[in-house]
Every structure is written in structure tokens, then in C-alpha cells.
Amino acid sequence: MTTDVFLFGTLRHDDLRAAVLNAAPAMSPATMAGHVQVDVQGYPVLVACDGAQAKGGLVALDASALARLDFYEGLFDYTRETATVLRDGAPVQAQVYRPGELPQVTDTRWEFTDWSARNADAAILAAHELFALAGVYAPEALKVRYPMLLAHAASQLRAGQAVQSATLRGDWGRDDVVSRQRMQPYAYFFGVQVDDLQFQRFDGSASNVVRRAGFVMSDAVTLLPYDPALDLVLVIEQFRYGPYMRGDANCWSLEPIAGRIDPGESPGECALREAQEEARLHLMQDALVPVGESYPSPGAISEYLYSFVALCDLSHADEGVAGLASEAEDIRSHVIPFERLMALIASGEVRNGPLIQTAYWLALNKARLQAR
């Protein structure tokens, strides 16, 4: 026995649909009359619209595929309901997934081609990892984990496309590491990955099988706004859980603007977005000056940082409190002379690694940037 389901939006993509359903059932073109797909935080939502036709397709799913689809759509708070769709102009009763509570929508149309170009590859990787975890972790945990799975998948793709330099280090490849067994003993917002692996030694032999564990995180940016005319910088201050876990007496940290790179977003686009969210700074792409790229702690976490300085006018910068309420952010901005920042580093009040690294880079390059 099969159930007809009308799929629209991201699941029109053949490879993502195959990853979610663990099958490749035939899909016949279909439409839902009187509806349009609008963009809500990057995802398509069906909204009533007179005269419109929402494109999709009909698939006949068995119980196993339908259960996988219910699980996947449930991560987005979508549930099935019966609707009438058109196949070859004829009405057909089918199941369609709709949000339980319609979010606030805009007039922005969701475009399949745009999503495919920017997000499809990451969504496919994330779906495969999601279903590998589905038999181990509760849906409530994976609902929290999924956005980070998607961001990590985008990071994997970015890493695979990066040009690798090997002029001093050995010219190694991923084939020089063999994972004998992989586990993920923890999955919530962050994940923990454990590999029993062997790596090639410098003498050409394979190492013994060793166990390595680390936090699975995603790529991020850091940004230090700098006013070359007034020699001012903007740093932010916020509560940080890391110092709290360590037992620090003061868990509020002076830092650069920073944030995770969203899927489909470039490091530069992320830097501009975070500047607006965390410090109410509206910057242009040409304000960004790359400082470098780095793994802050390569022995334990997969996080990779793209660090920038932003050349801007800080004479009227807002020193108030900002941040996203949806992420419980409470972020205070400080505009201070660059000399004061260096004094704070020397005194130990600044203990954020990326801020120290960027400040010393700025000290070496200030004259060049001021000349610009």
C-alpha cells in the first residue's frame, strides 16, 4: 500500500529526495492551485495566493519512506494534511506538509534554482548524517542539532574546495588517514565525533589504531572594526560559557564581532551580517580586509575561522547593547583607541585568542591601512 504525497520546495531536488527517502521513487509533475511558495528564513512555505500555481511533484510512498519523510519534515514542525493538487490538469487527493503554525511571511518568493545553487549540496550531506543519527538520538535532540549539521556540511564542502599549500609540511591527503570505526556519542547543538583511525607516519609506516575525539563545529568569522582616521577599534563584550565551565571568576569576555557562517553564505557575507546584528554597524564588502584563516584548536575541534578587519568610520558608532533576542544574545559594544586595546591585551583583560591575533596583525599593518 502506498500514499500519494505532494512534494514541493527543497524536496524537488532529486538527490536530496533520495537521501531523505532512502529511495528514488518516480515523481510526476503536479501543482497546487491558489498557492505560492514564499521564503521564510531560507525555506519554502506554501501560502494562499489567488491565481498562483505552486510547482511540485507527486510521489507514491510506502510506509517506510513515509515514516522517514514524517521524521524529516517534523524537524521543521511540518505535519501532513490532505489537499487537492493538480496532475495533468486533473484534481488528485494527496498528502502535503504544512507548518503547524504559519510563520510571519513576506512577499519574497522562494526560488528552487537559487536554493539549489547555494544550499543543495550541504542539505544532501546533512540529510545523510541526520539519518545516520536518527536511530540513536531522539527527534527533539536532532531538531536542535540539524541547523549545525547543515552548517557543518557547508564547512566540509568549503574545506574540500580550498587550495592546499604544502611547501614546508608534507604533501599529505585524506587517503593517508584511514578511519576503522566512527561513532558520534553526543549530538545536540554541538556534536562529538570519535574515530578509531590510523594515519601515515613520517617514516612511511602506518600508525597503530588510535582513538581521537573532538567537537564537530562549523566555520565562523571574526571581525574587528577599525577607524584608520581616528585610530579607534570596536570590541564587544558578552557572557561566555567557556570561561564559566573553566571556573573563571569573571565570565564576560572582550572579543571581536564573530559568528557562524550560515549555509549558502560566504565568509564576507557572514561578517557583514554579524556586524549589523552584534554592533549595529552597516558595512560594505569593500570595507573588509582579510587577516587570515586558522584552526583555533585543531587537536580538539573542527571550527575554522576567517578573520577580518573592517575599515570604517567609528566616530558615531553606537556603544549600546545589541544582539539577537532569538539567540539570547546580550552584547555590549566598546569603541576605544587602538592603544587602549593593546594595553588591555598586555594586562591580561583581553583573553580572546582571535582578538589578540587580529590586534597584533593590525599593529603590523596599521600604517598601510591608514595610507589607504
Automatic annotation (TrEMBL):
Cite the entry's keywords alphabetically: Hydrolase, Transferase
Q: Which domain of life is it from?
A: Bacteria
Q: Which SUPFAM superfamilies match?
A: Gamma-glutamyl cyclotransferase-like, Nudix
| Boundaries of every Nudix hydrolase domain copy | 216-358
What's the cofactor? Mg(2+)
NCBIfam families attached to this UniProt entry: nudix-type nucleoside diphosphatase, YffH/AdpP family (TIGR00052)
PANTHER family tied to this protein? AIG2-LIKE PROTEIN D
Q: What's the protein called, per UniProt?
A: Putative gamma-glutamylcyclotransferase
